[in-house]
Amino acid sequence: MPHQTEIHFPADHPTAAGHFPGNPVIPGAVLLDTALTAIAAAEGLILGSCRLRAAKFLHPVRPGERMRVEWQAAPAGGIAFTGSVAGKPVMTGSVTS
Asked: Residues 11, 42: contact at Cβ < 8 Å?
């Protein structure tokens, strides 16, 4: 069974103003960093010792939205994770520790 957490990106998130004016999105690097920080904290991992194996961004996340992050041990080792907003997948990826 996967572990999960929710991450809220406030409507006034500081990255929203520049990405992109009139059509704000939370940058993929912020999504990834926030998700991996939450996973590391929950699993007792040190992010500096993790390696990103893959990351794919499937749909934009807007300021004011909540992203559900789910993760579990990957069959080949490491951790596989997904992010979704209102049930719609927004990112997938995996890390090794």
From this structure: no
CB 25 within 8 A of CB 59: no
CB-CB contact of 56 with 92 (8 Å): yes
Q: Tell me which long-range contacts 44-50 makes (C-beta under 8 A, separation of at least 24).
A: 45/97, 49/97, 50/95, 50/96, 50/97
Give the helix/strand (H/E) hosting 75: none
Which amino acid is present at 82?
Answer: T
pLDDT tens, position by position, 61-82 = 999 999 999 999 888 789 999 9
| DSSP letters for 13-72 | -TTTTTS-TTS----HHHHHHHHHHHHHHHHT--GGG-EEEEEEE-S---TT-EEEEEEE
What structural domains and CATH numbers belong to the chain? Answer: 3-96 (3.10.129.10)
